[in-house]
Design goal:
mainly alpha, two-stranded parallel sheet, 143 residues, extended, 6 helices
Amino acid sequence: MKKMYIAEALREAIREEMQRDETVFCIGEDIGIEHKLLYGSIDIPLVIHGGTGFPKKAVKKCIRLGVAKFNVGTILKQVYYRGIKDSVRRIGNNLAVQEIVGSRKKGDFTYLAKQNVKEKVKEFLQLYDSAGKSPAKVFLRKK
């Protein structure tokens, strides 16, 4: 096995995989340049990985150019964790476990975390101009 830098190994592996399977393609950090070449020549949606730090001003243009998904898991995990941390701090030594673990009430330590995620998702839906546009029908369980 020849010695190579990690970047070289990654490039070689990606090149081999793209040759093996024509449905696999890769766009690097210079997505603006590469995307102009791809736009209109492929009929699959594009995805922004690392959407958590993606500039808000660039979102609408990317959507116009064919980006269909922004991966934002990191920020959702961060706001969830922040909610857990704040809840635990608020609870302190009040260990009424029936109320704070699994009750699904405001006193539950996950309540604030879930609310934080819900608000962040609403923010993203507005940013991506997706609020109220889901084609899926939502079925709710009766309690």
